[in-house]
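Rotation project, supervised by the postdoc (A.L.). Task for the rotation student: set up a whole-complex structure prediction and record inputs and outputs verbatim in this book. Inputs entered:
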Amino acid sequence: MAKREIPEVNAGSMADIAFLLLIFFLVTTTMDTDTGIARLLPPIQEAQQDDAPPIKERNVFSVLVNSQNQLLVEGRPMRMEELTEATKEFIENPLRLETMPEMKPTEVEFFGLVDVTKGVISLQNDRGTEFQTYLMVQNELQRAYSELRQDLAKRKFRKDYKDLSDAEQSAIREIYAQRISEAEPKNIGGGAK
Amino acid sequence: MAKFRKNKKGGQPAINTASLPDIVFMLLFFFMVSTTMKEVDLKVTVRAAEATELEKLEKKELVTFIYVGVPTKSFQGLFGDEPRVQLNDQFASVPDIQSYIVQARDAMKEADQPKMTTSIKADRECPMGIITDIKQALRKASALKINYSAAPKAEMVK
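Outputs recorded:
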């Protein structure tokens, strides 16, 4: 047998390949962070409170969603794309209309005396409403608030809302406080399973 | 071809790095295994709903998941094709949620318990009826911080 010397395979680059794979997995596994729309549920009330003052009709922005995924906002049908604008108009009441919510002058840090809306958004959905539609409504309402907050932050502080300090953010949140109330489940518009 | 001359004299001998790939591979396998282990086997189909105003779920250990959707093909014979709730690795009914939440909360550190978040991962075509029932159950279990799981939407329809 001829004695031949087998050259040794250079394994130096093996480490590089393995490192590459390792980094790839590290990055891809941490990338899929869960995202979603955060909401706070109201605590359950044992006894019905009847002594709570009734909210005036003009202060309620009613959003109804039926089982056909159609919207009824303030008694008239609306497309999803219009919801954000309508919500913003309701919260701001720029023309101080009689039909729109009352504005209550409130003392807020950084801003002094400002008009804060007394409006409440009331959201009601049918049991047959699709989850995607419900989420979209929540999304549009949230978007209305975010856009208003962003606008105010730009006007007052000339900065993005997310770049503001905690105190400034909470001042803006006080002016545009998120008040979305969800009615107890009900069958509206029929067609529920 | 250039010829390299071996510099025998002087300098230290090179450290043998042949075992480095083994070490790195070991790390690699560790990460691969440990990251897939935590995934729950989904027994219901969950096609993520889409939204734009998303918030990240910050700390995984504070989050409890509830999956809602139609059972997958292999489970439809047993569980039907109505949307069902999945907690951990098994099908459950809505009244089970309360004890599930209490259990999950007890497993947490006391300081973390008020920060507990429940993430509802529901199929996008799931009717709201079952989700409303879940919400009521969560209210009863006083797990009030919830998160509707959704994927980012690429283009907003204007």
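Student's summary: Chain A has a mean pLDDT of 82.
Supervisor addendum: The beta strands of chain A are 35-40, 60-65, 71-73, 76-78, 103-108, 112-117, 120-125, 180-182.
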